[in-house]
Design goal:
Blueprint lengths: L2 H12 L5 H13 L1 H20 L9 H45 L2
Helix pairs in contact: 1-2, 1-3, 2-3, 2-4
This protein binds zinc ion.
Length: 109
Amino acid sequence: MECYEAEEMVSGYINNTLKTADLEKFLEHVRKCPSCYDELEMHFIVNEAINRLSEEGETALDFKVLLEQDLKQAERHVLRLRLQKVLILWALITVLILAVFFGLYALFT
Ligand SMILES: [Zn+2]
């Protein structure tokens, strides 16, 4: 992914509207690219600050920690979906193998 593509996805990330495939590529890029990470951090902080203006009692928030938590959560989400896909594929292959096996068994008995 190119930096300009990642920059276009920043608001999508913050608003939680990225598709999983895009989210995955975005996360990969942001983890490797310091300039896009900074860009994301700036947007994230502004967004969090606006969100929390109305909330009282929360002062001295560490936005960097919040962003890290948010990124980790997104990464876990992507990982879980990927694992799900693998498990479904694995189940399909198992069913296929069993079907072939019983098909052959039926043919030769
Ligand atoms: Zn970049």
